[in-house]
Write a structure and sequence with these properties.
The protein is of the alpha+beta class and about 325 residues long. It folds into 2 domains: about 1-65 and about 205-315, 3-Layer(aba) Sandwich (Beta-lactamase), CATH 3.40.710; about 65-200, Beta-lactamase. The protein is built from 13 helices and 9 strands. Strands 3-2-8-7-6 form a 5-stranded antiparallel sheet. A two-stranded antiparallel sheet has the order 1-9. Strands 4-5 form a two-stranded antiparallel ribbon. Strand 2 (about 45-50) and strand 3 form a beta hairpin. Helix 2 packs across helix 3 (about 85-90), helix 2 packs across helix 6 and helix 5 crosses helix 9 (about 190-200). The protein is globular, with a radius of gyration of 18 Å. The site of glutamine has 11 residues, from loops. InterPro entries: Beta-lactam/transpept-like, Glutaminase. This is Glutaminase. One of its GO terms (biological process) is glutamate biosynthetic process.
Length: about 325
Amino acid sequence: TQTTQKWLQNYVDDWVNFYQKNTNEGEVASYIPILQEANQQHLGISILGINGMEIRSGNVEIPFTIQSISKVFTFIVACIQRGVSYVLSKVDVEPTGGAFNSIMHLETRQVKKPFNPLVNAGAITITSMLIGDTAERKLEGFYQLLEKILGYRPPLNIDVYQSENESSVRNRAIGYYLLEMGYLESELDLTLETYFKQCSIEITIDDLARLGMILANDGEDPSTQEEIIPRQVARLAKVLMLTCGMYDASGKFAAYVGIPAKSGVSGGIVAVAPPRARDHQLPFLDGCGIGVYGPALDKQGNSIAGIRLLRHIANQWDLSIF
Ligand code: GLN
């Protein structure tokens, strides 16, 4: 096992160095002004196996805000609080093929609900369903879930929250549209405040690897056998990640990488490689969560170097679920 771990570590180190060259491509997100302060050159990866094996490489210590990755976990919390069938009666599970902050897709839709919980319109609707009459109370279940998985309560980055709140024209437009359609279950300002705060929680790639690992293990903590996320909800979360998690690049990500993943505009990606039924080339890593960070983004808003690194590793290690 130790030689395998060492071999895997060297392998990952080599490819992080290689793909670090790609960080000159793309751009750091700027529509939330403070996100521009991120260092475009950064690239890091953290892999955590269900069996506990850990591989970390590159810029692993940099904290960043969770952004859209939060949408997976507020969806999970809404399902736990309100029941899966109720949540799915309000938000659909169809990919849009459009941008994450699209309004057009809301307007042209025949079915009277937002497309899915991982685009802004669906995510804001999900946030409106969280129980509580203040943003802090609405986020309590989300924080509790994170704390249960990570072992600590990640902090809110107040500067990012303020920057996003001040530059939130598009999300407000989406919010007003949702309000007009009668989709929101809590008052608009409260819903948006909660949504911007959930996006501004600060985490690391180690946290993403752990969150991904729990999903890879169908919601159960492998060391305690505790069910942290109901199996059915964990499964739905992975379906959404696979079909909608990488915005309008989700199809390509499924084709070329082949595992559920969710990205955020600060440059993080959480990926989930579930254990494989058949004999696996790398039994020591059969089932893992992967966190990557690389703030230089492509036009869809996904980390360029992060996707290339994930694609390389997933192909070499045969992680595709298909
Ligand atoms: N807070 C961001 C927004 O709604 C999250 C978007 C993202 O990460 N794609 O604009």
